[in-house]
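Work Package 4 report. The design task specified in the project plan requires that, given a folded chain encoded as structure tokens, an amino acid be chosen for each position. We show below one input record used in the internal validation round.
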């Protein structure tokens, strides 16, 4: 296995068969070696910096019905909320005061926010705060809509592909199209966004073969960012009784992604921190280099309940900022509050 890890480290590539062989044979020693090589790669490209993004979860209304997701349309127990433009700008203002220079606006697919509203929100943020990056994560839209947001100043777009196995995708996403999701990612890239794809780990019936498809898909797509995290059951969804993904498997896949895409921006996600108190720190040591603390108002935090046991739902933005900074330092890394663009776009 060490020989295969060296090959992955040296060439940033492996065949599907080799990836599968590695994934199927990860003993303790191989895991340690894999994480070490991934960390080395990240230090070489991004030093010990961890980029901070302020996350604003601005609506939990959603027209979709993803079977794993706590804010799915059919969850009648979800207490729905929307933030106004003014409330979103207030979150950015507090974020700016705390040093954040990237805001991630995330929400369900909520038709209340028309293209005009999104354009207004994005352009107001860009006009109010100098030198900040705006990331959108609001699901599948038309090429024209994506273009409008981009022209208004949006810099980046996160749209996890969720899984690159069509059958698994279809079983989890009623009334949605795998082909359209992939088309959206290509549209976003064509328009000029820094794009983020990604997937969940530990979904019911997910296999190592599925992960190999995710990894080869990402290698081909060459996204600027990859968001991966464990699936965690939410009690009001059809997958309530399923098992959650593990820190161990998530960290293995983080390392694979760091080695396949050395320059990628790779978050240690809130979901990873939610299944284990030291999950995000372990993610950083496995090759992750981004964290996304929450800037949403505390009054709505617990309503964006994608999964059970989500951390940081009671903390003010300033508390989250301090908590994560201490954790990053204790893990041996440095906080970086700059825009944190992909390395190919820095100093341009
Ligand atoms: N609506 C947007 C979209 O579809 O991209 C963004 C919001 S969506 C809630 C953000 C991400 O949350 C999804 O891409 C999914 O991977 C993740 N997610 C949803 N439910 C989850 C769960 N039960 N466990 C872990 N992650 C989950
Ligand atoms: Fe739409 Fe989860 S079902 S965000």
């Amino acid at each position: 296995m060490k020989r295969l890890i060296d090959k992955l480290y040296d060439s940033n590539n492996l065949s599907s068969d080799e990836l599968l062989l590695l994934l199927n044979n990860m003993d303790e020693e191989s895991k340690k070696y894999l994480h070490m090589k991934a960390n080395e790669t990240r230090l070489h490209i991004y030093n010990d910096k961890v980029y901070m993004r302020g996350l604003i979860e601005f609506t939990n209304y959603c027209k979709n019905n993803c079977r794993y997701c706590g804010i799915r349309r059919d969850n009648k127990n979800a207490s729905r909320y929307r933030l106004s433009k003014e409330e979103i700008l207030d979150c950015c203002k507090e974020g700016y005061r705390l040093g954040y220079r990237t805001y991630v606006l995330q929400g369900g697919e909520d038709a209340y926010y028309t293209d005009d509203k999104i354009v207004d929100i994005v352009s107001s943020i860009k006009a109010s705060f100098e030198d900040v990056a705006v990331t959108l994560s609001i699901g599948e839209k038309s090429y024209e809509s994506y273009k409008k947001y981009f022209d208004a100043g949006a810099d980046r777009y996160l749209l996890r592909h969720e899984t690159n196995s069509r059958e698994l995708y279809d079983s989890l996403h009623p009334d949605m199209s795998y082909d359209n999701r992939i088309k959206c990612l290509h549209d976003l890239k064509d328009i000029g966004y820094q794009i983020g794809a990604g997937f969940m780990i530990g979904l019911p019936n997910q296999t190592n073969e599925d992960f190999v498809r995710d990894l080869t898909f990402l290698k081909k797509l060459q996204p600027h960012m990859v968001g991966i995290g464990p699936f965690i059951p939410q009690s009001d969804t059809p997958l309530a009784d399923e098992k959650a993904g593990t820190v161990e498997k998530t960290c293995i896949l983080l390392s694979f992604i760091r080695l396949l895409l050395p320059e990628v921006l790779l978050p240690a996600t809130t979901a990873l921190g939610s299944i284990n108190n030291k999950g995000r720190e372990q993610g950083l040591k496995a090759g992750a280099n981004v964290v996304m603390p929450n800037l949403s108002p505390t009054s709505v935090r617990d309503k964006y309940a994608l999964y059970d046991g989500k951390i940081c739902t009671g903390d003010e933005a300033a508390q989250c900022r301090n908590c994560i900074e201490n954790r990053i330092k204790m893990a041996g890394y440095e906080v970086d509050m700059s825009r944190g663009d992909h390395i190919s776009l820095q100093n341009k």
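DSSP finds 14 helices and eleven strands in the chain. Validation will be extended to a larger panel in the next phase.
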